[in-house]
Amino acid sequence: MNHSEKLKQIIQKQNGTVLSADLDAYEIPRIYLQKMVAEGQLERVGRGIYVSVNSIEDELFAMQTKYPKLVYSHETALYLHELTDRTPFDYSVSVPSGYKVVGKVADRFKVFYIKKELHQLGIETVSSNHGNPIIIYNIERTICDLVRSRNRIDIQIFNEALKRFVRLKSVDYLKLMDYAKQLRIDKSLNRYLEVLL
């Protein structure tokens, strides 16, 4: 398979999105990317991010691929878990404490910092709206984050998410309480659950 075919295969696999870092990973010379842009097959939508002209940019996938420490959380995770109907105005991400957030991320995302040892707690891989794999917190961790950061969350989103959450049959309450203890919000979480259950 030649470089052009390999590049087209990557674009197809990633539902129309390709990063300049992908070329490095697959040892494809950058000239092939430039050629596809010149021919009008690809469009540069950000630094190192290219999208097929007949596709829509998968920003969640592209940003997480460029900045692998980002874990989608809070309102963004609520939306992806269908605990809210509101499309997030700003995407929410959690990063480990001490992680230097670049200006591009800080300008476009609501950033939450978490202790390094708790950053990976409850992560899972789901498909973005464009079908690409992205990492978010599972539903139990998302609810804990919601309670932990309740002063930074819209009250209507907060209340609706909790009401939807308690109606779910798939919730692992042991996992939820374990996360709540590790995040030191177990008493607060219990107060909300007592009212709703």
Give a brief rundown of this model.
This protein is α+β, with helices and mostly antiparallel strands. It has helices at 3-13, 20-25, 31-38, 59-66, 74-80, 103-108, 116-119, 139-148, 155-167, 173-182, 186-196, and strands spanning 17-19, 42-46, 49-52, 71-72, 91-96, 109-114, 123-127, 133-137.
Global structural class: alpha+beta
How many beta-strand segments? 8
Instruction: Give the DSSP E fraction (strand runs of 2 or more residues).
Output: 15-25%
Shape: elongated
Tally the helices: 11
Number of domains: 2
Largest sheet report: 3 strands, antiparallel
Report how far apart the termini are.
58 Å
Helix content: 40-55%
Low-confidence stretches: none
Mean pLDDT: 90
Rg estimate, integer Å: 19 Å
